[in-house]
């Protein structure tokens, strides 16, 4: 996409579709405010139905970066830097590889791969299938965090979200407290968003229309992020998070089914 001059956000959508985009962004950024990561999956899964996969993913990348500017001070203050530093190089390398694949795939193949990656990520996260493997590894070794970060970033870039779902398995064991876990999530999510925006811009996917759409979504993004942050401080969120994963798994399976039907 070239950098076309266009200040008519969502011009091709009807009222119901625009309402879905706004509702998806509120839900997604509520999740980010509450947990420090995870906003992209609900936003991408819902908005792909009306925007298409490339549009939905790039728009979510831009709005997520805007949300991170609000949350980053908490990450800088509370992150476990000894845990975060080894992950950073792997995240940048994985994001570059994922962006190359994202640009290469057609919308039909991207939807299919995106759905499969999200399903796998959610299953691994929901039923804690990686915990045993990671817990037996050397948590502070150099190779484990680099490999996990590169894999998570590449998968998250292609699928539009979910990269931190993989990394959080490692972070839960490596970080000493819930506050350090959330702060480290926020710090790494910011790096991930910055790298993704930089690479998709270099690949030519950022247009004036997408920037305009990001601007008009900012109020609901900020509201969702603020509300989720209040939720984190005020309540136990374990049941909410478990329920959200089940809902997202169903949405990802529906996306896979839709993508497969397009090949018939």
Structural account:
- The chain is mainly alpha-helical.
- The chain has one domain (15-261).
- Helix content is 81%, strand content 0%.
- The protein contains eleven helices and no strands.
- It has helices spanning 15-35, 40-51, 53-78, 81-104, 107-126, 131-136, 143-159, 163-174, 178-202, 208-234, 238-261.
- Helix 2 runs antiparallel to helix 3, helix 4 packs parallel to helix 9 (178-202) and helix 5 (107-126) crosses helix 7.
- The longest helix has 27 residues, at 208-234.
- It is globular and about 50 Å long.
- The protein starts with 14 loop residues before the first helix and ends with a helix.
Q: Estimate the mean pLDDT confidence.
A: 83
In percent, how much strand structure appears in the residues?
under 5%
Oligomer: single chain
Taking the alpha carbons of the first and last residues, their distance comes to: 28 Å
Secondary structure: elements and pairs:
Blueprint: H1 15-35, H2 40-51, H3 53-78, H4 81-104, H5 107-126, H6 131-136, H7 143-159, H8 163-174, H9 178-202, H10 208-234, H11 238-261
Helix pairs in contact: 1-2, 1-10, 2-3, 2-11, 3-9, 3-10, 4-7, 4-9, 5-7, 5-8, 5-11, 7-8, 8-9
Keywords:
264 residues, disordered N terminus, mainly alpha, 11 helices, globular
Concise account of the structure shown:
The chain is mostly helical. The chain has eleven helices and no strands.
